[in-house]
Amino acid sequence: MSEIKVGKYRHFKGNEYEVLCVARHSETLEDMVVYRALYGDGDVWVRPASMWNETVERDGQVRPRFEYIG
To answer: What CATH number has the domain bearing residue 38?
Structure first.
């Protein structure tokens, strides 16, 4: 799995998010990404790191689900 850096990311659908940290699930020990939306109310979310690092296909192009932008 590639390293997930703290900082800003763009979701493949266009919205931007800030990764706050990578945490560990207390039961499964799975790495979880803790991030907040940089739009709307700035809600805080958590997603498995394995999903964070996935690629998606859209309009015939394969791209990362989240792209690091700084």
So the answer is: 2.30.30.320
Predicted model pTM: 0.89
Question: Does residue 2 lie within any of the structural domains?
Answer: no
Q: Is 17 exposed, middle or buried (0-12, 13-18, 19+ CB in 10 A)?
A: buried
Residue 35: closest CA among 11, 13, 18, 51: 18
Q: Is residue 1 part of a domain?
A: no
**pLDDT value of residue 3:** 87
Contacts of residue 35, defined as CB under 8 A and 6 or more positions apart, other chains included, come to 9, 17, 18, 19, 20, 44, 45, 46, 47
